[in-house]
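hi! just following up on the protien thing from before. the input was this:
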Amino acid sequence: MCLDAGRAVLCEKSMAGNAADTKLVLDLAREKQLFFLHGVWSRFFPAMSELRRVIDSGEIGEVVSAHASFCQNDGAGACSATLETGIYCAQFIQWAMGGVAPESVEGVNFRLHEVR
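and the predicted 3d structure came back as:
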């Protein structure tokens, strides 16, 4: 709606439900020459700046693997885990690895409470 109306967009998660919808949004922003930003603000935490410094300095050696976990029990189910909070884990891993896409991604899902 905003891009169609000629407005720039700062988007919080989740941006889109799948890669095809994401491409549609980004293609529209390019076509209309409008600014579009998917805001992942956690990259700007002071702890992240320090982590970037440590990784880049080599003081912990070459980073070849990373693990991230974000637990949340808000009742929203898989949508929340994948599209809402999962993005923080995915972007962290890619950021920690210098922007390189991972060779593989694994995930675990479990229920904290019995479903009735």
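DSSP finds three helices and two strands in the chain.
The mean pLDDT is 80.
cheers
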